[in-house]
Write a structure and sequence with these properties.
This protein has about 210 residues and is an alpha/beta fold. It has helices at about 15-25, 30-40, 45-55, 65-75, 80-105, 140-150, 155-160, 165-170, 185-205; strands spanning about 1-10, 30, 110-115, 130-135, 175-180. It has a single domain, classed as 3-Layer(aba) Sandwich (Rossmann fold). Helix content is about 55%, strand content about 15%. The protein is globular, with a radius of gyration of 18 Å.
């Protein structure tokens, strides 16, 4: 008895902040980006596939993946981006499934959140019991990212535009978190959703 919940939003929308709120409430978080990083460590099959497809230029001298170089390539070439996604997405989905099952076996009735930027674009939302989308205006997102990251406004816009618009993501959402205001506003909404999901979990037949 458990629920697997997708959590997504556009770059800079506050998805990770929402994940932290759910975690503090007792939820378990599967960070798709962290899983992806682990899957491309030296010696892992995914890294070898990436090297085969993109060449030695995306591998540093110490054998680590050169993320900035790979990012530059895929954000400038949509077909290359698709190649990378075809390598990584199936492996990430499988690892999420394995970790979800391990949590279920160890913890019993649980709420597990998959924190994933490309949850909708990858089609992984179909594997979730429920989906949450965090929304925020483009202006606010850009402002936050300029403060948080070393990217230029042009680079930020290019990355934002590489993702599905939030207006499209919302169409797949069971719940929407509006993050255009302060943290307390986001927390109140997240707490309410967590309570509803907990009640849903408790009402499920025990198997």
């Amino acid at each position: 008895m458990s629920l697997l919940i997708g959590l997504t939003g556009g770059m800079g929308s506050g998805k990770s902040t929402a994940a932290e709120i759910f975690k503090k409430n007792g939820g378990h978080i599967l960070d798709a980006d962290l899983i992806c990083r682990e899957l491309v460590e030296p010696g892992k099959p995914a890294l070898r596939e990436i090297q085969d497809c993109f060449g030695d230029k995306v591998i540093k001298k110490d054998g680590q993946l050169d993320r900035p170089e790979l990012s530059r390539i895929v954000f400038e070439n949509p077909s290359k981006k698709k190649v990378l996604e075809n390598i990584l997405h199936p492996k990430v989905f499988e690892e999420e499934r394995i970790r979800y099952e391990a949590i279920r076996q160890k913890k019993g009735p649980v709420l597990v959140f998959v924190d994933a930027a490309l949850l909708i674009e990858s089609g992984n939302y179909r594997n979730m019991d429920k989906n949450i989308v965090v929304t925020c205006s483009d202006e606010e997102r850009i402002s936050r990212l300029l403060t948080r990251d070393t990217l230029t406004k042009e680079e930020i816009l290019k990355r934002i535009n590489s993702q599905a618009p939030l207006s499209e993501k919302i169409k797949f959402a069971d719940y929407v978190l509006d993050n255009n205001h302060d943290f307390e506003s986001l927390k109140l909404q997240a707490d309410k959703i967590y309570t509803e999901l907990t009640e849903m979990l408790q009402s499920m037949p025990k198997t």
